[in-house]
Design a protein that fits this description.
Structural class: alpha+beta
Number of helices: 4
Helix content: 25-40%
Oligomer: single chain
Strand order of the largest sheet: 5-4-6-7-8
Strand content: 15-25%
Radius of gyration: 45 Å
Number of strands: 9
Order of helices and strands: HHEEEEEHEHEEE
């Protein structure tokens, strides 16, 4: 059988590249690798330089936290308000005394008397009892009268107050049942307008002064009667309070 090779059949492989061509290819590939390594090194060095300039003195952990927190929204915290004397919302002027009277409310809400940030009567002191609690202040001296059922000693205590004394009165539970007429007269003589209106378990607070005039803008008395429909506590009205600032130089 005879074979025949047409004109379209492929020819055999060409001659191999010369030695100089092979050497040139190797040099080109090596040069490209060197350029790439140098470029990558420059990029890494420049990135480190920028980081060092941005956070020069911070440790690495702090730098990482700073970068992470760049996109976080800052949280603004309001400063803690400074506590005022007798828990006032605003401070009293430096030439005045701060006071706060709080009646009792229910069985567990005891009456309180605070003067110049000193708790004179309160549950913490264990000197509050059922009835009218009285503190007489002739600063810096303070006399306390825990309530008792007999109005006689209370009347004498009020009448014994020294001139230019301040008298603070607050009720806990009921202060009216055993209050006789002599006691009412003694309190009324100090300027009370509500002592004769007091009813069973009325919440009542009163500030008075003996032998001097209190500023007219001071709220001196407040009362809240027991009402079955409106009582905050079962059988008791809500506690009430008055607070203010009394001038140190009193006429």
């Amino acid at each position: 059988m005879k074979s025949h090779r047409g004109d379209g059949e492929s020819q055999g492989p060409g001659p191999p590249p010369s030695r100089s061509q092979q050497l040139l290819g190797v040099l080109s590939a090596g040069l490209l690798k060197v350029v790439f390594v140098v470029f990558a090194s420059l990029c890494a060095w420049y990135s480190g330089y920028l980081l060092a300039e941005l956070i020069p003195d911070a440790p690495l952990s702090s730098a990482a936290y700073s970068i992470r927190s760049l996109g976080e929204r800052p949280v603004l915290k309001a400063p803690v308000p400074k506590r005022q004397k007798c828990d006032h919302w605003t401070p009293c002027p430096s030439d005045t005394y701060a006071y706060r009277l709080l009646s009792g409310g229910g069985r567990s809400k005891y009456a309180k008397i605070c003067f110049e940030d000193n708790l004179l009567m309160g549950e913490q002191l264990g000197n509050v009892a059922r009835g009218i609690n009285i503190a007489i202040v002739n600063y810096p001296k303070t006399d306390l009268h825990p309530p008792i059922d007999n109005s006689g000693p209370m009347t004498k205590f009020i009448q014994s107050a020294a001139p230019k004394s301040l008298l603070f009165m607050v009720t806990y539970d009921d202060g009216s049942t055993r209050l006789n007429n002599d006691a009412k007269n003694a309190i009324e003589a100090l300027g009370s307008k509500e002592i004769r209106n007091m009813k069973f378990r009325s919440s009542w607070v009163f500030i008075a002064a003996k032998g001097l005039e209190l500023p007219s803008e001071i709220q001196r008395e407040k009362i809240n009667h027991s009402d079955a429909k409106n009582n905050r506590y079962s059988g008791w009205p809500a506690e009430i309070q008055i607070e203010g600032c009394i001038p140190k130089e009193r006429s």
